[in-house]
Amino acid sequence: MVVKKMHDMGIRSEHAYLAAMASIGLTVAAWAGSMKLERGTGLARADRWGLFVGEWAPTFFGLGLALSHYEQQDGTLTATVHELRDQREHRAG
Questions:
Q1: Alpha carbon of 1 to those of 23, 62, 67, 75: distances in Å?
Q2: How many angstroms separate the CA atoms of 61 and 31, rounded?
Q3: What is the pLDDT of residues 29-65, one digit of tens each?
Q4: 68, pLDDT greater than 80
Q5: Please, are residues 28 and 50 in contact by the beta-carbon 8 Å criterion?
Q6: What is the mean pLDDT of residues 69-85?
Q7: CB 16 within 8 A of CB 60
Q8: Closest CA to 69 of 13, 23, 9
Q9: What is the mean pLDDT of the chain?
Q10: Is the predicted pLDDT of residue 16 greater than 80, yes or no?
Q11: Hey, where are the domains in the chain?
């Protein structure tokens, strides 16, 4: 399962939500940057850049929801980083 593997790698729902919010900001920056840097190409090209980056946000939000659901089932949603590390060390050793 991809979500379990991501969770085991230390990726949490908060990380996915932050990536989603960052991609929204990056969408605006890509659109504005394309408008300024590629003046001769017009609005259509800037819109394509903005849409390309903007498509990342729903994916990150979906991953955040999946990770949040897994964390609720796993019981790690409210655990601190130190508690998670201790649990992992206890399982390994």
A1: 25, 15, 11, 17
A2: 21
A3: 887 777 776 666 666 766 777 787 788 899 999 999 9
A4: yes
A5: yes
A6: 73
A7: yes
A8: 13
A9: 82
A10: yes
A11: 13-88
Q: From residue 54, how far is each of 20, 37, 50 by CA, in Å?
A: 9, 19, 6
Q: Which amino acid is at 92?
A: A
For 39, the token pair is: 């003046």
Q: Is the pTM of this model over 0.70?
A: no
* Residue with tokens 């940057």, as numbered in its chain: 33
Q: What is the rounded distance in angstroms from the CA atom of residue 5 to the CA atom of residue 50?
A: 30
CB 2 within 8 A of CB 13: no
**Token duo for residue 81:** 């980083």
Phi/psi of residue 21, nearest 5 degrees: -65, -40
Helix axes 43-54, 13-37, angle to 10 degrees: 170
Phi, psi of 70 (to 5 degrees): -65, -40
